[in-house]
Amino acid sequence: MIRFLKIFLVLFLAFSTFLFSKDGNFVDIILSNLQRIYDHTHRNYNAWNTLAELCDNFGPRLSGSENLEKSVDWIENKLRLEGYDSVWSEQVMVPKWVRVHEDCEIVYPRRKVLPIMAYGGSVSTPDTGILAEVIVVNSFEDLEKNKGSVKGKIVVYNPPYEGYGKTVQYRWLGAVKAAQYGAVAALCRPVSPMSLNNPHTGVMHYEDTVTKIPFASITEEDALLLERFQRRGIVPKLFLKILTRDEGFSPSRNVIAQIRGSVFPNEIIAFGGHIDSWDAGSGAHDDAGGCVASWYVLKTFKELGIRPKRTLRLVFWVNEENGLEGGKKYAELHKYENHKLLFEFDSGIFPPNRIGFTGPDTLWEKIVDFKNYFSKFYPNVEIQKGGGGVDISPMMKLGYPGGSLGTDDKGKYFWFHHSHKDTPDKIDPKDLNDCVSIIAMFLYLYSEIL
Ligand SMILES: [Zn+2]
After folding, report:
1. What distance in angstroms lies between residue 311's CA and the mean position of ligand 1's atoms?
2. What is the pTM of this model?
């Protein structure tokens, strides 16, 4: 037995020597800096305090809103004071859609006022509202089966939640499908696994060839109530008034700060999140958290005096939620710069559990090795193929590698997503620190080992 243990020990040592054989000194520096990053990012809860300040002071940050512009100004000013090598912003024209008035009430078989949020981009009802009968459907197949009874009615979609990727089709296509059969408006249950009587907004879609009808989220509770009425043979009647304004485009900015690389300053690692949000709650998880985590990554390098070999560029993109104009503008202006990686964090602030990567196999072989370096701190974080994000997608389409951080939300992210529940109190300060720490470690390794 002892002999086996000895053989095992010899093999283990040989393997570790192989693993870290690049250069003892190089590896020592890397490991010691990872430890410094970990310690520094867990010293206090300043990242959470900054997140709360951003969310509390400016509130939700819909594209085209004064809130967004004020938060962009605040961030840019703070970045300047923090003294990075360069800080600047780049103008982006973003769509300006405004929610003006919303009112929804069951008038038959009994009166009940319903919480409601129009989906982003929804057209208005007439100024006097709509009074119409309701038809509840559970799926598009169900709608198809009942298409003969849709004309002149308000279609209420009540699909069970089967994961965001699948169920979100009702929010995206619901207005078009209902309008095709002559509905006068459509409502939908939130794309969320859990409800506490809150509607959840989000982006929706119209087609030029189909009549544009108003479309909004009601709550899961009310969608279920309307369905129960229908099952009992009652045809509920609703009053619906939604007033919105499409104000075209207005100027906003992507904000950028960077630390120049010490060896390869022209090789760029761009990372960040989107500063715009829906006009609900204060966009804490989506995506103030991703922005602040990324901000504290750059701040960590600055405060520790670590200057990585490659340039670290922090980007706060605008207009992820309803247009992607920030991501498109970034690609337009920076596509010829030598980006080694674009990294986005937009998956909610929970314990980190996954780094996704999309890029050439030659890089992938180096990246899977990173786990050997950070597993001491984050044994549960896996490195997996498949990374990216909406804001970095225009650059990834051009062939640049993309990465992202995933978190173990236990299904909770979509409890809050795009609703009034998305506020800083839903974020654990320790989780935020861990997200800062692992992103900093990954980007540092990427910069040094690439
Ligand atoms: Zn987001």
Report:
1. 25
2. 0.92
SS3 state at 195:
coil
The answer to whether 382 touches 371, Cβ cutoff 8 Å, is yes
Convert the pLDDT of each residue in 212-269 to its tens digit. Answer: 999 999 999 999 999 999 999 999 999 999 999 999 999 999 999 999 999 999 999 9
Does residue 12 carry a pLDDT above 70?
no
Q: What is the DSSP letter of 206?
A: -
Residues 6+ apart with CB under 8 A from 346: 273, 274, 286, 287, 290, 320, 389, 390, 391, 404
Beta pairing, strands 130-137 & 237-259: antiparallel
Whether residue 104 contacts residue 85, with contact meaning beta carbons closer than 8 Å, is answered with no
User: In 219-310, where does DSSP find H-type helix?
Assistant: 220-231, 289-304
Helix, strand, coil distribution of the chain in percent, nearest 5: 40, 25, 35
Distance 227 CA to ligand 1 centre (A): 31
Q: How far is the CA of 306 from the centre of ligand 1 (A)?
A: 29
Distance 406 CA to ligand 1 centre (A): 13
d(CA 62, CA 153): 31
List the domains of the chain with CATH numbers: 33-85+260-449 (3.40.630.10), 98-244 (3.50.30.30)
Q: How far is the CA of 243 from the centre of ligand 1 (A)?
A: 25
Closest-CA residue to 346 (of 413, 279, 433):
413
Supply the DSSP string of 347-396, one letter for each residue.
S-SS-EEEEEEES-HHHHHHHTTHHHHHTTT-TTPEEEE----TTTHHHH
| pLDDT tens digits, one per residue of 84-129 | 999 999 999 999 999 999 999 999 999 999 999 999 999 999 999 9
User: Is there a contact between 41 and 437 (Cβ–Cβ < 8 Å)?
Assistant: yes
* Catalytic machinery residues: 320
- Asked if pLDDT for residue 15 goes beyond 50, the answer is no
